[in-house]
Amino acid sequence: MDPLSSDEIIVERALTGDAEAFGEIVRRWERRIFALTYGILGREEDARDATQETFIAAFRNLRGFRGEAKVSSWLHRIAVNQCISRQRRAKVRSESALEEEQEKDASSFVAPVDYSPLRVAEGRQETLAVRRALNSLPIELRQVVVMKEFEELTFREIAEALDLPLSTVKSRLYTALKQLQLRLQKFESRN
Amino acid sequence: MNEMNNSPSCERNPDLIAFLYDEATESEARDFKLHLQECSSCRAELASFGLVRESIVAWRDEALSGFVSSPLAAKAPARSALAALRQFFDLSPLWLKAAIGFAVLTFCALAVLAFARLQPKAPAVAVKDPNAIYSQEDVDRLVEGALAKQALPAPKPPIPGITVRLTKPKRVATSTQMAKSRRPLSRSERDQLAADLRLLSTQEDVRLNLLGDRINQ
C-alpha cells in the first residue's frame, strides 16, 4: 500500500474489493479517533469500544461514502455519533456509579516517575477537575472542545465533520470555554 | 463600542475565538489586537481561556500518555539490528563488553584457522627440467605412454539437438595408468574399459588375449 495515497483513493480501493485498503485507513486514523472518543467519553474502556465501533460502522457504510466530504470528516462524524449513542445508553446508570468510576479513573492518573508526591497529588486533582468539568458539559459543546483540543482540527473541519455552520462551531466553542472556565474557577476556590 | 467594552461579554466572541486558536486572517488579527487595547472584557477572557486551554492540553497529554496498554499506543519504530546492538552495548557493563570482545576475537581467529586448513593444497607441479637426463627405461615408458594415448579414439563431437546429461565422470583407468602399473587388467577393469571405449561387446572379450598384449605386461 502506497503510504502517500490519499484517504479517498484508499477508500476507492476498498470499495473495489482491496482487502488491505480499509486496514490502512484504520492504521492511519485509529489513534486520532481514539483521542477523540477518549476526550468525549472520558474513560479508556469506553473510548476503545467507541473507536472499534466507529471503524466497524465505517466499514459497513463504506458504500454510503460519496466522497463529498473528506474521509477524516466522515470518520469524525461517525465517531461523535458513536460517542453520543454510548452516552445515551450510559444514562441508565446511576449518577453515584458514574461518580465512583470517575474517582477510580482519577486515581489511575499516571505521573512521571520524577514527580514528587505533592505534585502527583496536584496532578490527580487537576486531572480530576478538568475531566469533571469537561464531562459536565453538554455533548454538543464537549465534542467541539475535544475536536479542537484533542484533534487540533480547524473550525472548517469541525463544521464539515459535524455538518454545522462555521459560526455555530465558533459560538459553541466560546460557550464551552466559558463554562469550563467557571467550573475550574469553582474547583480552585474550593481547594 | 465603549459600552460593550465594559459589559461582561463582548459581541466579538467569534473574533476572540478565531484569534485564540490562531485561525484569524492577518487583517482580522490586526483588527482584533486593536480591539483588545480598548476592550477589557475580551482581554480578561482571552487570558482565562488561555489557562483553560492549558489545563485541557495538560490533561490530554497526561491521560493519553498513560495508556501503555492501549492498542492504539504509538508503535515503536522498527529499529535496525545494528541500532539494537548499539543500544545493547551502551547498556552493558564493562566486564560484559570485554567478554564479548574477547569472544569475538577468538571466534575470528578460529574462523581464519579453519579457513586456512580447508584450503586445498597447491598440487606439486612437476617441473620439467630441460637439462634432465633420461635413462633408457624412462624413455621406454614415455614412448609407451604416447602410444597408448594415440590408441584412444578422439571424442565424437556432440550431436546437435541432444541434451547433454552431465554425470559424474567415471574413474577410468587410462592406458597410461595401465602402462605405468604394468599389471594385467582385471575382468572388471576390462569390462569398464570396453564399455567406455564402446569397442567390444562383452562376448568378444573371451577371444581376447589381453595378457599377451605388450602394454599389459
Query: Roughly what fraction of the amino acids of chain A lie in strands?
Result: under 5%
Mean pLDDT metric of chain A: 80
Principal-axes geometry of chain B comes out as: rod-shaped
Radius of gyration of chain B: 49 Å
Low-confidence stretches of chain A: 106-113
| Largest protein interface, residues of each chain | A-B, 36 and 30 residues
How many DSSP helices of chain A? 9
Task: Characterize the biggest β-sheet of chain A.
Answer: none
Assembly type of the chains comes to heterodimer
Mean pLDDT of chain B: 67
Please identify the structural class of chain A as seen in this structure.
Answer: mainly alpha
Return the string of H and E elements of chain B.
HHHHHHHHH
Instruction: For the record, give the distance between the C-alpha atoms at the N and C termini of chain B, rounded to a whole number.
Output: 135 Å
Distance between the termini of chain A: 54 Å
Question: What is the makeup of the main sheet of chain B?
Answer: none
Number of strands of chain B: 0
Briefly note the structural class of the backbone of chain B: mainly alpha
Report helical residue fraction of chain B: 55-70%
Order of helices and strands of chain A: HHHHHHHHH
Global shape of chain A:
elongated
Notes on the structure:
The complex is a heterodimer of chains A (191) and B (217). With 191 residues, chain A is mainly α. Chain A has nine helices and no strands. Chain A is elongated and about 60 Å long. Chain B has 217 residues and is mainly alpha-helical. Chain B has nine helices and no strands. Chain B has helices spanning 2-6, 13-20, 26-38, 40-65, 81-91, 94-118, 136-151, 175-181, 187-197. In chain B, α2 (13-20) packs across α4 and α7 runs antiparallel to α8.
